[in-house]
Amino acid sequence: MELLSAQTQNTLMEALNALRQNNPQRTIALCQDHLIANPSSIDHLQLYAHALIKMNQLTEARKKIDFALSITPDFAPLLEDLGSIQALAENYEEAIVSFRRAIQIDPRLTGAHKKLAQALVACGRNDEIDEAFESYLDHDDDAALVAAGAEHWRANRLSEAETTLTKALRKNPNNVDAMRFLAMVYHGQNKKLNDAEALLRRATDIAPDFHQAYGNLGRVLIDNGKWEDAIKCYKKLVTLQPEDDTAWAGIGRSYTLSGSIDKSIGAYEQSLAINEQSASVHLAYAHMLKTVGRQTDALIAYRKSIVYKPQMGESYWSMANLKIFCFEPEEVAAMEQQLKTNDLTDSARVHFHFSLGKAFEDNKNYDKAWQHYHAGNQTQRPLIDYDPVENELYLERIRRVFNADMFAANSDVGHDAADPIFVVGLPRSGSTLIEQILASHSQVEGTSELSNIGSIAVGTGKFRHDGLTYPDTMSTLTQRDYAAYGKEYLQQVTHHRVQGTPYFIDKMPNNFPHIGWIKMILPNAKIINTRRHPIDSCLGAYKQLFAKGQNFTYEKFELSEFYRSYIEIMEHWHAVLPGQVLDVHYEDTVTDLETQVRKILDFCGLEYEESCLRFYETERAVKTASSEQVRQPIYTDALGLWKKYGAHLADWQEELADIIEQLPESVKKASL
């Protein structure tokens, strides 16, 4: 190549910087202007082609490279560019020829070695791949280190992977491949997620077209709870890779988590338009359709996921989890057949057992239903982490800290907002029904099961030097702190409130241990505790395979002990906060709806509205397992269901007899 004049160097640098700043149109304009007076400038022709490639105008880019090669046919970088264009157009055999010619002329072209190996992979020429990759690594020490680190990562030698990739970054701090693989090491261990995010953000800053890093960054952002950032990340990825179905699925997942269900559905539809055969996306898509009440469409999507992956037990359970759905006989047979195979994962086996439990319960074969529910729970219990002793000690600390003296000494603290209505209780106790009734009121919005209250409470122990953890941190808080935490909660949940109503519902059932905390930071908030007959409550939880959490439900004795602990902590709250928590029994609600609706609205300071009796007509997204049940008028079929299971539940009847005896007569009568 000829030496460039200062003016030519300046225009070339300006054009190159424009391309680096993702402005290929500016690059083209500068190159065109220079080529008018200098039509044989190979550097400008090559850069012009690079800009066209960035704009996916491969045919025009090929013309520029061909013209440049007609002037300098043995210029190896042009041959590498030709191979790149051919590979992008999926003409891999032609690309292999171009890359090999470039390497023959200049063996030092590291990128050409790598691209040759990738083209051989695309063509399936397996016998030539290893040699090509070895040649690539021989010419690039940095790449060799990254390759070694990546191999450690794939073999699950994570400590060695971290050491090797860190060494690669010390050698070359701008090695984006090392950044990506080290981030994957951190993410895979679910540790140093902030470091993983930082590495991937830096990698995409250095290499704005690094689409693999954007995919990894999107997943890390989701796990870091940064859903809006994840949406932006995935949207950048689809501008780089418009036909990347996994990127569209990532957008769908991010929208789901941020509460934008309609946008989530649209993103999943785009993903499926690109790749119809993705069972996992059909499953996620079906979940969203179910959430907005499109049950028929959801069933179609669930069943499509099974077509593409018959061993996906989660799809069957998702259909069972519609509650008002019944399996077809051939679906029951298919599930039983899957359980006979030896290659199912434990998770899939659990899903099939719970699904078959539902199928046989619908057919009133309660003994066989119990066998499957029990087998599912026994298989699930070793897969989750739950320490009943730790839970009991935690509740004891709660009772000790949040005592009557504490509330008496802090009678005028917290943020004075009355916006939140908290619905708490054990799962499968009717909390979704109460939420739907309240959300049918013109002044109330139903949001979701929000985790913010617990997170903020636990967060009072973060970054402390004295080792205190919640709830013992309460002794160090000031009146100003309580108000600040109440304000923080309201700010955190703002994006869930889209209707502009004065009140909203936080239906996180697991907030029942945090009632004291709620009343300290939001003293005017209303709290409703949903209850159900103890045996029906335990049975409902034992029959439910939860997406996450509720780990106390998978062993019979642990479940009944947890129920007793729940009753004890609720009795404590009633004692230290008299009249500030309303108990609502499921049995009373379904047998005398209007009376209960009036009592609930009166407790919340709301005017009576007839729409609350017609809660099933309210159109809103419902994400819980009861989503379809609360879209139906009141029914009493579930009352006293525990009696159908007879002797299987005798131990619960004995263990919880004293609690049953203390139930209101209306509840005992309805459950007979």
Write out the CATH superfamily name of the largest domain.
Answer: P-loop containing nucleotide triphosphate hydrolases
Strand content: under 5%
Mean pLDDT: 89
User: How much is the radius of gyration in Å?
Assistant: 31 Å
Under CATH, the topology of the largest domain is which?
Rossmann fold
Largest sheet geometry:
5 strands, parallel
Give an overview in words.
The longest helix is centred in the last third of the chain and has 21 residues. It is elongated and about 95 Å long. About 2% of the residues have low confidence. The chain has three domains: 137 residues, Alpha Horseshoe (Serine Threonine Protein Phosphatase 5, Tetratricopeptide repeat); 228 residues, Alpha Horseshoe (Serine Threonine Protein Phosphatase 5, Tetratricopeptide repeat); 248 residues, 3-Layer(aba) Sandwich (Rossmann fold). Helix 5 packs parallel to helix 7, helix 9 packs antiparallel against helix 10 and helix 13 runs parallel beside helix 15. With 672 residues, the protein is mostly helical. Helices cover 62% and strands 4% of the residues. The protein has 35 helices and five strands. 43% of the residues are buried. A five-stranded parallel β-sheet has the order 2-3-1-4-5, with helices on both faces.
